[in-house]
Amino acid sequence: MNRQLSDKISQEGKPIPAARFGIGDVVRHRLFDFRGVIFDVDPEFANSEEWYESIPEEIRPAKDQPFYHLLAENSESSYVAYVSQQNLVHDEDAEEIDHPAIDGLFDRFAEGRYRLRREHRH
């Protein structure tokens, strides 16, 4: 896939990559065993510095890339995750996510992605 650059510039003055995934996409983490559905996108890192510093330095992602809010699941639980673009891939399983908040945000699952409820669309 070609990597497009957006017209946005990071605080460091570098171009910010365009978002590779959209709301409703089902994705999988590259390093950890969980998957989820995207419900929000930040063009670049927008969480606390404390959260960022808690990531081990050897796997800490760059801040100047899109970050995604996920309704996530693993074999043990459901939760909300915040993940950098570099650590996500499309989930090829095309199976639904088992998360209790899905029905509040999305109205259906078809062709491997979720459709946002009308009241949440802009």
From TrEMBL:
User: Which InterPro entries does this entry report, sorted A to Z?
Assistant: Clp_protease_adapter_ClpF (IPR053189), Hemimethylated_DNA-bd_dom (IPR011722), Hemimethylated_DNA-bd_sf (IPR036623)
| Keywords (A to Z) from UniProt | Stress response
Q: What is this protein called?
A: Heat shock protein HspQ
Record-annotated Hemimethylated DNA-binding domain positions: 18-117
Q: Which Pfam families match?
A: YccV-like
Classification of source organism: Bacteria, Pseudomonadati, Pseudomonadota, Alphaproteobacteria, Sphingomonadales
Q: Which domain of life is it from?
A: Bacteria
